[in-house]
Each structure stands twice: as C-alpha cells, then as structure tokens.
C-alpha cells in the first residue's frame, strides 16, 4: 500500500486530501470522526482483503502509521502486532 492509495481511499469517502502528508493525524489533521475511521477501515479491508485491527485507526495516529500497518499485514510480518508509535 502506498500513501497515494491512502489518499485514494480518503477520496472515496469525500474527504479532502489536499495538503495531507504521512504525518497528518487521522483526527486532528484529517478531521475524521469515529464513524469515518470505521468506514476507512472497511474500505482498506476490502481493497486489500485483510482483517485490519481497529487499533490501527485511532484518531491520534498518523496516516503513515496506517500505511505501515497495512503493509506489515500484506507482507505477513508480525510487526503489525507491535504497539503503534504515535508520531
């Protein structure tokens, strides 16, 4: 998964993506509420055929964290089980 894939998923949700970076926080910077976080989780799970843990979609995490966690799952890494660093 690339950052551009993340922006595509957000665009599917009609969320403005201009100016977003991998360090943009889901809640504060992107402006997502809890329902939108669940929607993003569902979109990414469908895109990649994964069961992504809800903890990956906390409001104070960065977009880059989500990309890293999805990639870890896609690569079969146990890294996805590690605690997420909040940037």
TrEMBL record:
GO cellular component terms, A-Z: cytosol; membrane
Pfam families: PP-binding
Domain Carrier: 13-68
Source species, domain of life: Bacteria
GO BP term (any one): lipid A biosynthetic process
InterPro entries named among the record's database cross-references: ACP-like_sf, PP-bd_ACP
Name of the protein in question: Acyl carrier protein
Organism lineage string: Bacteria, Bacillati, Cyanobacteriota, Cyanophyceae, Gloeobacterales
